[in-house]
Amino acid sequence: MFRSRVLLFFSGVCLNDWKILFDKELLQQCFKSVMNRKRALISDTFKVNKRRVGNEKQFGAVNNGEAGPLDVKATLQDLMTLFPRKLFNDALPQIVLKHQLYSIHNDRTQVDRQLSDLREQGELLMFQLGFDAEAFGLVFAADYKAKVLAGEEGRGTRGTVDKFLEKVLPSCKDLSFNKEKMLKEFLFTDSEITQLVKSGVLTVRDAGSWWLSIPNSGRFTKYLIQGRKAVLGMVKKSKYNEVLKAELEERQTNSQVKFQIKYHIHDIIGAELVECIPTTSGTVLRCVDY
């Protein structure tokens, strides 16, 4: 009986001869070999599990160390695909909020640095949106110029706007301009400044200074604010003021939400109106109390 059990245990591993069963040294070696194989399998299993846990990503987070260098321009282009061009009859350039980038990249310093580089190179423009001191819109310069020129077609302000786009836009690194700079550096007259305000490329900041602005963007700001409130309301009405991000993305929206809901989700995460909590079921969005 003992011999049969030993043979069954080591069958196919290292014993093919009945006589070997009586060699104690060989038995010990074979037993040791089997145990080593078991240990190796257990070790490999735990290594695989550790790698999987380490590679899990929280929504809105990018593993910059392993996924390659951070590419803010590519992220901007991806976010801009969520912008509803048709809603505005394709009259507005695609607008992304600066803080929406923070919903995707954790390293805010790197994001800000790359945004600064893109602005220095004349590729990107940044705008103060007005409804919040921390709300900045980002638009590619080429898209902005094309939409502004299309809107100026046949208007009396076209010549002044052309001058503005040629002189100011290529080196535009400011959010606003004072009167001295407009008159002495860019050589605009008071009358021309008035025309620029009328056309919408400038909006009054205070006496003697103007914000760079996006013509006809008032409706965008209105829809953004009301959509943000509606999506936040969905989260607040959920149990414990929290909801799975994946579930929220699939929710049916009411008439208050004009944009894709993912656009608003990036907004509320980046603006830190909700916090992201990783769970076994996925990322949970929870309202932040102030």
UniProtKB/TrEMBL annotation:
Signal peptide: none annotated. Belongs to the STK19 family. Pfam families: Stk19 (PF10494). InterPro entries: STK19-like. Transmembrane segments: none annotated. GO terms for biological process: positive regulation of Ras protein signal transduction. This is Serine/threonine-protein kinase 19-like isoform X2. Coiled coil: none annotated.
